[in-house]
Amino acid sequence: MFVDEVKVHVKGGRGGSGVTSFARQPYEPKGRPDGGDGGTGGDVLVRATRDVATLVDYHHRPHRSAGAGRHGEGDLRRGADGADTVLLVPPGTVVRDADGGALADLVHDGDEVVAAAGGGGGRGNAAFRTSQRRAPRFHEYGEPPQERWLVLELKLAADVALVGLPNAGKSSLIARLSAARPKIADYPFTTLTPNLGVVRRDDVDFVVADVPGLVAGAGEGRGLGHRFLRHVERAGVLVHVLDCASYEQRDPRDDLRTVVAELARYDADLLERPALVFLNKVDADPETAEIVRPDLVADGWEVLAGSAATGAGVAELSRRMAALVALARRSRADAGSDELVRPVLRPAAREGADITVERRDTGWRVRSERVERWVVMTDLDNDDAVRYLQGRMVRAGVERALVAAGARHGDPVEIAGAVFDFDPEPADLPSGEAEEEAAVDTDIVVTGDEQP
């Protein structure tokens, strides 16, 4: 089953938690802190490989996750990192987020992108030892991973695209040109999925795609237009296949105008690619080819004629295709880049320095990726850990941001699902309130047990 678009849910591995531990030796009941750090969670990566040709595996199993990091242990033993999960996709796959934004365009074999990063490992208590804090009795939880929905969209990476209306003979032509064996029948819409074939001519190897038949309105999504047209985007050369055996029912010149119009509606840049016209089925009606050829040449088209059924003219067609492919490749090389290839993009770094304060009916809410991550990784039932968290938030400017927004002493403040009573440092208060609050203990107090 050929599947060229799927929606998948990816989730990295959670980071392992650190551990609180102290060295214990004979005659040394109070040893140094030796709690190790947790391991980093695994990433979910999407990697292009020629070993797969469809996205069908993700159609049946859309949920993918990476391995979690192991927890740290005593004696400074760090937890093992979680295993990565690699999603193998065909070259030409575009990775988009749920909103349609492109994360990566995996054109070449080996291209990859981190789709969901694993969480960092939490630090053990040994990491918090300082000259003032000699026996820290707290550690960090592992960091939660990234998780999100993605859309994988396959756009076949072919050098030549055979385009035309249904029943023009494209499947027969690719079968004659290569070892591909598509379904062939004498009725329209025989081909419902693209077919690929590898052709070698004049020491040039190139890939030909048989794009399923287009119809009027395909550029606007009629029928399966967008599903088919996306496979034309990467082709460096276009071959318009026209049916010369049905002249009494339709004019090949009108067929060509219809296909060109649909290509222009979908992406006008497609009309700038090297292209030629192949008048097919001349064995059944040679007179039609002689009638329409002068008009097509007058319009500026390079025209070849032949028959996919008998093989007439196919050798000349493959030679011209090889020459145009070589020309297209040289043009891209001379330009210094492949204009059909978009760069692989990496997800934005998760470290965010901005602090946003929102007014809510019941108090305030602080948004900051960095600060929220600190809260989630803190054991809020541990007083030492909460005091350490308070110091980090003061240094990060959370209290100053709340005071600037109008927060007052005792207001409830929500950060990452945990609710605190706002109790700022006197230096952060307006001058009129600093003396009044000078004697107040400045520890942040957790209201309730909203531990993440």
Helices, strands, pairings?
Elements: E1 5-11, E2 44-48, H1 56-60, E3 63-65, E4 85-89, E5 93-97, E6 102-106, E7 112-116, E8 147-154, E9 160-163, H2 170-177, E10 195-201, E11 204-210, H3 225-229, E12 237-243, H4 252-266, E13 275-280, H5 286-298, E14 303-305, H6 314-334, E15 356-360, E16 363-367, H7 369-376, H8 383-396, H9 398-405, E17 412-415, E18 418-421, H10 431-437, E19 445-446
Parallel strand pairs: 1-3, 2-4, 9-11, 9-12, 12-13, 13-14, 16-17
Antiparallel strand pairs: 1-8, 2-7, 5-6, 5-8, 10-11, 15-16, 17-18, 18-19
Structure described in brief:
With 452 residues, the chain is an alpha/beta fold. 23% of the residues lie in helices and 21% in strands.
Fold and architecture overview:
- With 452 residues, this protein is of the alpha/beta class.
- The chain folds into three domains: 154 residues, Spo0b-associated Gtp-binding Protein, Chain: A (Distorted Sandwich), CATH 2.70.210.12; 175 residues, P-loop containing nucleotide triphosphate hydrolases (Rossmann fold), CATH 3.40.50.300; 91 residues, GTP-binding protein OBG, C-terminal domain (GMP Synthetase, Chain A, domain 3, 2-Layer Sandwich), CATH 3.30.300.
- The chain contains ten helices and 19 strands.
- Strands 10-11-9-12-13-14 form a six-stranded mixed sheet, sandwiched between helices.
- The protein is elongated.
- The two termini are 43 Å apart.
User: Would you identify the regions where 5 or more consecutive residues have pLDDT less than 50?
Assistant: 182-192, 217-226, 337-352, 431-452
Order of helices and strands: EEHEEEEEEEHEEHEHEHEHEEHHHEEHE
- Gap between N and C termini, in Å? 43 Å
Rg (CA only): 32 Å
Strand count, sense and barrel status of the largest sheet are: 6 strands, mixed
Q: Approximately how much beta-strand content do the residues carry?
A: 15-25%
Total helical segments: 10
**What structural class do you assign from the helix and strand content?**
alpha/beta
Q: What's the oligomerization state?
A: single chain
Strand order within the widest sheet?
10-11-9-12-13-14
CATH architecture of the largest domain: 3-Layer(aba) Sandwich
**Would you tell me which CATH topology of the largest domain applies?**
Rossmann fold
Residue share in helices?
Answer: 10-25%
